[in-house]
Design goal:
The complex is a heterodimer. Chain A has one domain. Helix content of chain A is about 75%, strand content about 0%. Chain A is built from 15 helices and no strands. Chain A is globular. By secondary structure, chain B is of the alpha+beta class. Chain B has 2 domains: about 50 residues; about 170 residues, Tumour Suppressor Smad4. Chain B contains 1 helix and 13 strands. In chain B, the strands form 3 sheets. In chain B, strands 2-1-11-10-7-8 form a 6-stranded antiparallel sheet, with no helix packed on it. Chain B is elongated. Chain B starts with 5 loop residues before the first helix and ends in a 72-residue tail after the last strand. The chains are: A mainly alpha, B alpha+beta. Chains A and B meet through helix 1, helix 3, helix 12, helix 13 and helix 15 of A and helix 1 and strand 3 of B.
């Protein structure tokens, strides 16, 4: 890579590292807390380590990796001004998340489309989605992790066995999510699933029938449980606006959602910064689509398209939910969550994207080698 | 640890918050720039490797009104062949189902094809039994595939030719649209001498770059004689015209 090509990458990495350090330094200067100084040093150092050594070792896609790690560091920084202990805990949550990312990358480099992978991932994914129904006392939110596995299953079936078989795990997941009361995730999954069918199959008949079934399921659910469909209260929006463009150090009161870190981020660092952070999901999604279009196999293309669609739609839904435009509250922005399983699932999906990108690079290198042999 | 007075902190805080916004804006800008640079880089790489991602091409020997002979399709490593617009190889011929067959390249074996249920496929004139070949029937370099009324010949890039070691025996082809079967001469004959470099020992083809040209001299096919080129005697002889590449997006939503 020459200097001209590498400069945007280095500038981006430098800006991300600088900002992730400054986000901790500001509250550290105010309170003089040793933990915040430690975080200001360790978080950028960890990012640097991941984006250089680990990215080189595992051939990870640097852009997707840097963006997702920066969003994670913003999530940690959202706790820093008011609760340094929670910031340390959030930083510790990112370590298993990073392990999940590496597992996803390694898995995707070796995984190919087969009936065995489709069935096993569908079984595990549906098991995770039905965990709450099987064991009512089970409180760990595994829905996003289940959806990540179901994405592999659906991609495998869509690429190799046609859309007929892929409809089974897709709609099973939708029904389980609705039964479990996860309307927001069900809507996101339904939309992603329909878009994937549209991209991979393209038959109007299949798309229309899938769309009708999805609408019918949601309509039935809304008739059965009308109380679950309610817009977010405008009080949370008013609270966010009250913090102003640049934010404040002191939280005004009870935060709207415990898991979502977006309200904290907006209150502490202002609406402008929070809005720009949300806009960073745009290059992340573009990167996913870029990787999908470069993919050699249909299986990898469908997975990377799903992995880029799901967080993008989730971010959009969360944004709409903040403004009260969606009839279901409680949608968190990807990576800006304090839930460990959700964070791990999101980083696992980014890992899958990185693995597919590495595979694309390897395939292109093989093509170049073959062309060289032929000359 | 180090901390500042509240008065000084108020100033630092105000300046830093606007600085955060500025850096976040820069971050977004640099991310989009980086993405643009990578896209350009990929475009450059593909300009140098136009055949990247494909294993060869399928040349149409006989097709339909929408698919004239001498049209060629770049063949990806795996995908679906059918008449549907979303298929990887779109064959708009009568008798071709929406999704007719799956294909995937396997190094050392060839292009494995797996017909869908109720879809008739002939390889070198021999019907493919779907149940007997659950793993797929290999198409080799020069194999002729018939789907519906479409007859297509596979031409594999020379660089992938070591995978075609099983190509050496002669293959009898009897496509229904052709009156006479043709015979592909085995290696070692005068027409196809054994290549000298060890890399291409198994290759039945001369070594050419894999992206631009057909890897073999065209196998004679009686059904599609090459059209004579009109030439001005005073002008230097023109190169034979390259067959037209298929435009897969021509198809409508007829499904």
């Amino acid at each position: 890579m020459n200097r001209k090509q590498s400069s945007p990458r280095f500038r981006f990495a430098f800006a991300a590292l600088l900002l992730s350090a400054l986000l901790f330094l500001l509250p550290a200067v105010r309170s003089g807390d040793r933990r915040l100084y430690l975080l200001a040093a360790l978080v950028p150092a960890f990012m640097l380590l991941c984006c250089t050594v680990l990215a080189r070792l595992f051939s990870l896609d640097r852009m997707a990796l840097t963006l997702s790690l920066f969003l994670c560091s913003v999530g940690i920084a959202a706790f820093a001004p008011a609760d340094p202990d929670a910031a340390v805990a959030q930083a510790l949550r990112c370590i298993p998340g990073m392990a999940a990312l590496l597992i996803g990358a390694v898995l995707m480099r070796s995984l190919s489309s087969s009936m065995l992978s489709a069935v096993s991932s569908a079984f595990l994914g549906l098991l995770m989605l039905s965990a709450k129904l099987l064991v009512p006392t089970f409180s760990v939110p595994l829905a996003e992790a289940g959806l990540a596995l179901l994405l592999v299953s659906v991609a495998s079936l869509l690429s190799g066995r046609g859309s007929g078989l892929a409809l089974i795990p897709g709609f099973a997941a939708l029904i389980l999510l609705l039964t479990g009361g996860e309307i927001a995730l069900a809507a996101l999954w339904g939309l992603t699933f329909l878009l994937l069918i549209f991209a991979a199959d393209g038959r109007i008949l299949v798309i229309l029938s899938a769309f009708c079934v999805t609408v019918f399921l949601f309509f039935g659910y809304s008739r059965l449980f009308p109380a679950d469909f309610k817009a977010a209260d405008t009080g949370s929006l008013n609270m966010l606006i009250s913090a102003g463009w640049t934010g404040t150090d002191i939280l005004p009161g009870e935060l709207p959602s415990a898991a979502s870190l977006f309200p904290r981020l907006s209150l502490h660092f202002g609406l402008l910064f929070a809005g720009l952070t949300v806009l960073l999901f745009l290059p992340l999604s573009l990167r996913g689509i870029f990787i999908a279009t470069s993919s050699r196999t249909r299986f990898h293309a469908v997975i990377s398209m799903g992995v880029s669609l799901l967080p993008a739609l989730q971010a959009l839904a969360a944004l709409l939910s903040v403004f009260g435009f969606l009839p279901f509250p409680g949608v968190c922005f990807p990576f800006l969550t304090s839930s460990l399983p959700d964070l791990c699932a999101e980083l696992f999906m980014i890992g899958m994207l990185c693995g597919i990108s590495a595979r694309n690079e390897a395939d292109l290198a093989e093509d170049a080698h073959l062309a060289m042999l032929a000359k | 640890m180090f901390s500042v007075t509240p008065e000084l902190y108020a100033t630092v805080s105000l300046v830093s918050r606007w600085l955060f916004v500025f850096i976040a804006l820069l971050l977004l800008f640099f991310a989009l720039l980086w993405q643009r640079a990578e896209r350009r880089e990929r475009k450059e790489r593909f300009k140098n490797l136009p055949g990247a991602g494909t294993i060869g091409e399928l040349l149409v020997l006989s097709g339909s009104d929408q698919l004239p002979p001498d049209t060629w399709f770049p063949v990806p490593r795996e995908g679906v062949l059918g008449s549907l617009r979303s298929c990887d190889l779109v064959i708009p011929c009568p008798g071709v189902s929406a999704r007719h067959l799956d294909f995937s390249w396997q190094d050392g074996t060839g292009l494995l094809i797996r017909p869908h249920i109720g879809c008739d496929v002939l390889v070198d004139g021999v019907p493919v039994d779907r149940h007997a070949a659950s793993e797929g029937v290999p198409l080799l370099h020069g194999s002729v595939l018939q789907v519906g009324t479409g007859v297509l010949r596979l031409q594999v890039f020379a660089a992938l030719a070591p995978a075609n070691q099983a190509f050496s025996p002669a293959v009898q082809v009897a496509a229904p649209s052709q009156e006479a079967a043709f015979r592909i001469p085995p290696q070692g004959t005068a027409q196809y001498p054994d290549p000298v470099p060890p890399v291409w020992q198994a290759s039945p083809v001369p070594v050419v770059p894999p992206e631009m040209q057909s890897p073999v001299p065209p196998v004679p096919v009686n059904a599609t004689p090459p059209a004579p080129l009109l030439q001005n005697p005073e002008m230097p002889p023109e190169k034979p015209a390259r067959p037209k590449r298929a435009d897969r997006w021509k198809e409508d939503w007829s499904e």
